[in-house]
Amino acid sequence: MNETAKDGQTTVEMSDADIEEQKPLRKRILEVVGIFLITMFQRFTLLTSRKVYLGKDVVTSLIKENKPFIFGIWHCNVYMSPILYRGMDVYVLISKSKDGDLIDRVVKSFGNRSIRGSTSRGGTSALKAMIRVARQNSRLAFTPDGPRGPAFKVQQGIIAAASACGIPIVPAHYESTRQKVARSWDSHRVPMPFGTLINSFGEPIHIPRELDEDQFEEYRALVEVKLLENQKRCEEARDRLLRGEKI
What we know:
CATH class: Alpha Beta
Order of helices and strands: EEHEHEHEHEHEHEEEEH
Helix content: 40-55%
CATH superfamily: Glycerol-3-phosphate (1)-acyltransferase
CATH architecture: 3-Layer(aba) Sandwich
Number of domains: 1
CATH topology: Glycerol-3-phosphate (1)-acyltransferase
Strand order of the largest sheet: 1-2-6-5-7-4-8-11-3
Mean pLDDT: 90
Structural class: alpha/beta
Largest sheet: 9 strands, mixed
Number of helices: 7
Low-confidence stretches: none
Radius of gyration: 18 Å
Strand content: 15-25%
Oligomer: single chain
Number of strands: 11
């Protein structure tokens, strides 16, 4: 795993560094301005939102004990996750794509780090990097239904990663009482300012290191169920708040 550091931000390099230099100057300027505006809006949204946490003690305990784990986050939660999980020593698995390039910049703007790759392209090198990160007792973040879907369907990558790294998966999901839901394949959640932001965490899911084909599918299905349960709990809490009820 090759790491480069700049302004206190670290990236696990797995792609051609010269690609950025080949972009037209105008495009690079627009990207910089766009990312600045996105991150400023994220900061403003977080600053003006009331925060509610469900199951936060799960994450707090793991971090206090300096134990590595994988955040299992649906792709619909990509937008706010970099700022929500900043300061937790998190490496985010990001696909080698144009969208991934944008996400990578946003992730690093909040002091997080990244591993470029996916289960379908660059997967072997990405998995090796994840194993090294786990050995450093750092945290990982994975979108198990990304980057192309289907939405809310766990793919094999997160199971393979958790098994190879020997670390648990922690379901994580957010909803807001004031949010836009994009008309995209993942129904992406974009919280708006002055709402209540609910962040829910599920219990750690431990994946054995040795799995046969049937066991692999069993744990894949289990992780999917647990992520959906955590999502449902978060959505129900949001709905109760919208009805004026306490949670």
